[in-house]
Q: What sequence folds into this?
């Protein structure tokens, strides 16, 4: 490291150290002047009230249908609903359907599946006001899919001893996974928003279908991988309304 | 404008690259069956060492007739087991100039194994027993019973007659 670089780093640390120390020094000065404040005075904690109204959004994913037109052996359609709870938390539900059609020389089968994901999103940016619904969020989901696989025909290729042909019977099974999400949603016009989500998905029960893992599970991704990385681009329509104000009026009359 | 055009072209290239018909199979599809010729240098030694054979020949009878391979100065030979039967027979000699062959017969159970959608299915095997003639071979032992697409383990040790 050169002397110049070291000097810059020290200057950087120094600037931020001074910035950090300054309020403490200021507080010390104030304390020394204001001697009227008693030490056992309890300062009430200020609780910021969430004045946001109700907010319900319906979304449709437009990324997977476009990709499905390019990849002709898989399809997936996703829809979502989210509802603002409070304190920057949203309850989220995603659902959809899709499948895959494997038609290789040595392997042929089809799968269809429905899926449901439920979880929470938490906004990580401060809102301008209670009507500001643009956000960047992190979230998690628990996902499940019900998968139906047709009979699979296979050929084990062996150039020395000869090929062998066989079939695996059709099967219904379930897949479960967890997801971690990061996303952005921005309002384009009143009520209509667009955004994206990137997801890391981790299969919980991949061993239960190791005899023939589906090529593609709509809602998850590649079925023969334990983890999957996915991207959604979605359009949402939102409706908002005000919360009802609760009045704490006692209706019970005092006993005579 | 040019920057945007390049960006759009890049996005199209990325999307089109997703249209690959099938992912490449990156794992071996044939179970690797490894035979090692060994000897013990002294009567009291317990650790066998490799016996390099001058021109070993391994051959098998398949539906296409006899298929044979000559290996020069090798002690480890990678063969395969039949995926269409629960037994298979290999012929073996230590030197291609010799006319005395040995027969090795392997008995095993086949296990259908799904590798991936990219690779499809393969057969793995579980060795039960083996029989040999003793023209060149002194004795032979099964070392590893499970025969998979893992190329590391040695499955059979063959001890050659000291006089070969």
A:
């Amino acid at each position: 490291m050169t002397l110049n670089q070291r000097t810059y780093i020290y200057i950087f640390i120094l600037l931020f150290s001074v910035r950090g120390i300054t309020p403490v020094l200021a507080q010390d000065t104030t304390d020394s002047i204001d001697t009227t404040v008693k030490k056992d005075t309890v300062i009430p904690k200020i609780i910021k009230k969430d004045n946001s109204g109700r907010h319900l959004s319906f979304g449709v994913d437009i990324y997977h249908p476009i990709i499905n037109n390019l990849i002709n052996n898989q399809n997936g359609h996703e829809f979502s609903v989210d509802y603002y709870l409070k304190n920057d938390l949203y309850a989220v539900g995603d659902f959809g359907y899709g499948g895959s059609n494997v038609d290789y020389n040595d392997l042929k089968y089809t799968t269809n599946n429905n899926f449901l994901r439920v979880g929470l999103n938490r906004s990580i940016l401060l809102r301008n006001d209670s009507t500001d619904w643009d956000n960047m969020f992190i979230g998690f989901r628990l996902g499940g899919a019900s998968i139906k696989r047709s009979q699979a025909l296979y050929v084990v290729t062996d150039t020395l001893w000869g090929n062998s042909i066989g079939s695996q019977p059709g099967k219904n099974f379930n897949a479960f996974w967890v997801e971690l999400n990061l996303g952005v949603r921005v309002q384009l016009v009143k009520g209509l928003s667009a955004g994206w989500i990137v997801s890391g998905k981790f299969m919980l029960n991949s061993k239960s279908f190791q005899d023939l893992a589906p090529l593609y599970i709509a809602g998850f991704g590649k079925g023969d991988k334990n983890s999957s990385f996915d991207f959604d681009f979605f359009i949402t329509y939102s409706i908002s309304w005000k919360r009802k104000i609760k009045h704490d009026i006692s209706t019970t009359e005092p006993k005579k | 404008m040019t920057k945007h055009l390049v960006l759009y072209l890049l996005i199209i290239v990325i999307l089109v690259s997703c249209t690959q018909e099938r992912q490449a199979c990156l794992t071996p599809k044939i179970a690797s069956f490894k035979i090692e010729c060994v000897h013990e240098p002294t009567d009291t030694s317990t650790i066998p060492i490799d016996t390099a054979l001058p021109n070993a020949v391994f051959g098998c009878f398949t539906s296409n007739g006899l298929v044979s391979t000559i290996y020069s100065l090798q002690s480890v030979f990678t063969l395969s087991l039949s995926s269409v039967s629960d037994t298979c027979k290999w012929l073996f000699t230590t030197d291609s100039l010799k006319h005395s062959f040995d027969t090795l017969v392997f008995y095993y159970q086949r296990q259908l194994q799904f590798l991936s959608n990219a690779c499809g299915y393969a057969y793995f095997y579980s060795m039960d027993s083996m029989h040999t003639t003793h023209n060149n071979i002194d004795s032979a032992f099964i070392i590893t019973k499970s025969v998979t697409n893992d190329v590391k383990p040695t499955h059979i040790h063959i001890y050659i007659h000291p006089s070969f």
About this structure: Residues 38 and 44 of chain B are 15 Å apart (CA to CA). The mean pLDDT of chain B is 85.
